[in-house]
Amino acid sequence: MSIVSRKVLTLDEFTIQQLRDFPHATGELSGLLRDMGLAAKRVNVEVNKAGLVDILGDAGAVNVQGEDVKKLDVFANNQFTGVLQHGISCAGIASEELDDFVAFDDAVSKNSKYVCLYDPLDGSGNIDVNVSIGTIFSVYRRVTPQGTPVTKEDFLQPGRMQVAAGYMVYGSSTMLVYATRRGVNGFTLDPSIGEFCLSHPDIKCPEWGKIYSVNHGNFFQYSKGVQQYIDACQRRTKDNGGPYTQRYIGSMVADVHRNLIKGGIFMYPGTTDKPKGKLRLLYESNPFAFILEVAGGRATNGKERILDIVPTELHQRTPLFIGSKGMMDELDACMAQY
Ligand code: AHG
Ligand code: MN
Ligand code: MN
Ligand code: MN
Q1: Which residues are listed for Mg(2+) 2 binding in this entry (predicted)?
Q2: Considering just the CA atoms, what is the radius of gyration of the chain in Å?
Q3: How far apart are CA 250 and CA 258, in angstroms?
Q4: Smaller CB count within 10 Å for the chain: N or C?
Q5: Ligand nearest to the CA of 63
């Protein structure tokens, strides 16, 4: 019988080790990450059974975003909300799938210092066809006093105030990646022991990549600057760092995860129909902007840094350009001409 290799750190072991450098830390953030990991394992089991159990298809409702809600959207939302509500590290949540934020009113939760915002199931459109989907989350320190119920103010903080952000990919393997200001680390679910194990320590986004990710179907609805940049991507040759490759899964988690690891740029620009694009600032753009910046990349709405936007609505949308620093700088130069 082989012995357990202590070189493999589980998510819990890793977050507890991180606490050692902070003698005054309470361990609440570790607890919150453990809760998110636990709910992710439950969602993962359900995603793996999709097709066998009655989990495919629409739930028969339309969410506050105006989208058809899938059964798995509801299941995932209930798992993450439930685990945080019954945990001891989170005072309230906001979710893509809920009209309003939820203030946890039990005595333990009210005394917690964090709020969590999430897109419980990202890439809903891909559920029914067995393509990678994910979860995206964001953690802030509340601005209202501990011991009182959280208010909207706690959720409408600019993204630069995030304490941590992360995502899960339910793909060919299941991963949890999270960032704090200290770095970005990735954990792969080992199904044989049911634990997320450190597999991608200290992730850095390469300064350049060869991948650009955008929905080409909307090309003629993009601004001239965006069209110009896409055109430039297509014209890259081996003499100027190309040729580039276009990759677009349609689950932002999977698209941005790939570009974070390999280097690349992901864009969901505004269109003539939807000038603010599709992605939600609080549940999608902010967490990824935080993760990419910690990893050395950049994220903007085409004009300003995503993390500096002061939110006014829980469900507000924003155009998003995110990825390798060199490619983002080039995009800026291209857009500045128009
Ligand atoms: P969600 O499933 O959480 O509503 O998000 C879907 C988003 C995102 O994951 C993806 O990048 C984008 O929708 C794809 O949209 P298009 O099909 O318009 O390209
Ligand atoms: Mn949705
Ligand atoms: Mn999403
Ligand atoms: Mn979603």
Answers
A1: 119, 122, 284
A2: 20
A3: 12
A4: N
A5: 2
pLDDT tens per residue across span 167-195:
999 999 999 999 999 999 999 999 999 99
Centre of ligand 2 from the C-alpha of residue 69, in Å: 7
Of 129, 279, 280, which is best to mutate to test ligand 1, by the most ligand atoms within 8 angstroms of its C-beta?
Answer: 279
Give residue limits of the domains in the chain.
11-200, 211-336
130 annotated among ligand-binding-site residues: no
What ligand is nearest to the CA atom of residue 284?
A: 3
Ligand 1 neighbours (beta carbon < 6 A): 67, 96, 119, 122-124, 215, 250-252, 268, 278
19-49 tens-digit pLDDT = 888 878 889 999 999 999 999 999 999 999 8
Quick one: how far is CA 302 from the chain centroid? 19
* Homologous superfamily, domain 11-200: Fructose-1,6-Bisphosphatase, subunit A, domain 1 (3.30.540.10)
Question: 211-336 adopts what CATH topology?
Answer: D-Maltodextrin-Binding Protein; domain 2 (3.40.190)
Cis peptide before 243 (omega within 30 of 0): yes
Atom of ligand 1 nearest to the CA of 255: 11
Q: How far is the CA of 201 from the centre of ligand 2 (A)?
A: 30
Q: Which atom of ligand 1 is nearest to the CA of 217?
A: 19
Q: Identify the DSSP state of 73.
A: H
ipTM of the complex: 0.96
Q: Per-residue pLDDT tens for 252-293?
A: 999 999 999 999 999 999 999 999 999 999 999 999 999 999
Distance 124 CA to ligand 2 centre (A): 6
Q: What's the predicted TM-score (pTM) here?
A: 0.96
